Amino acid sequence: MFERDEVPDGGQLFYRSRDGAVRILRGGLAVSNGLGFSPDGRMLYHAESTAGVWAYSLGQDGMPGRPDMFARIDDCDWPGRSIAEGGVWVACWRSGANSALSPGRRTGSNLDAAIPHIVSLCFGGPDLTDLYVATGGNAEHPGKGGVVRIKTEVPGLRPFKSSPGLISSAG
After folding, report:
1. Does residue 89 or residue 102 have the better pLDDT?
2. pLDDT value at position 126?
3. 11-16 and 118-124 as β-strands: parallel, antiparallel, unpaired?
4. How far is it, in rounded angstroms, from Cα 38 to Cα 156?
5. CB-CB contact of 73 with 103 (8 Å)
6. Is the model's pLDDT at 111 over the cut of 60?
7. Which residues are paired to 136 by β-bridges?
8. What pLDDT digit, counting tens, does each position of 125-151 carry?
9. Cystine design at 77: which of 29, 45, 69, 93 (Cβ 3.0–4.6 Å)?
10. Where are the domains of the chain?
11. Mean pLDDT on 38-64
12. Residue closest to 10 by CA, chosen among 22, 20, 24
């Protein structure tokens, strides 16, 4: 999609309450690419690959409010999203970088990988300071890809647990 400058549209982000009611949070999404929660569980992050990362405040009932643009990035590959104490880490497909983000700006490290196209990030290791970076090839670099481990100063978080099917995206 990024290589061909294609921008699909029509994807939707859904919320399903515990009682089974379904609500569309956003429509017309080009590339809905994943979700993550803040450490305290009061914020939902959602990436739209061609636009950036959106943030939704969650009400007492867990219902997301209106989204605000958290960080504009036109090539974020949201399966690469990882939450850490210092911000939201996002993998970037076209630029081959990963960034730690705070509201509205990049704040942390960028990785310029020898292997193109960062597709996923996750924290691991006993103290969650190992950042695992998955990369992939493309038409210019067929068969390229790998996993790189980077030591970080700020630990990541364990995945937020939620009830299956409460929030999902479709594109």
Report:
1. 89
2. 93
3. unpaired
4. 11
5. no
6. no
7. 145
8. 999 888 888 887 666 767 777 788 888
9. 93
10. 11-170
11. 84
12. 24
Please compute the mean of the pLDDT values over residues 87-112 and round it to a whole number: 65
The pLDDT, as a whole number, for residue 121 is 82
Place of tokens 């030591």: 151
> Rounded distance, CA 25 to CA 31, Å?
15
When the pLDDT of each residue in the chain is averaged and rounded to a whole number, the result is: 74
Residue 6 tokens read as 């294609």
Identify each DSSP E strand in the chain by its residue range: 11-16, 22-29, 32-37, 43-48, 52-57, 68-72, 82-84, 87-92, 97-102, 105-106, 118-124, 130-136, 145-151, 167-170
Residue 146's alpha-carbon distances to 2, 8, 76, 141, 149, in angstroms, are 20, 28, 18, 12, 10
Please state, in angstroms and rounded to a whole number, the distance separating the CA atoms of residues 7 and 1. Answer: 7
Distance CA 129, CA 86 (A): 12
Residue type, 63: M
d(CA 18, CA 28): 25
Residue 48 tokens read as 């739209």
CATH of domain 11-170: 2.120.10.30
CA–CA dist 16, 165 (Å, integer)? 7
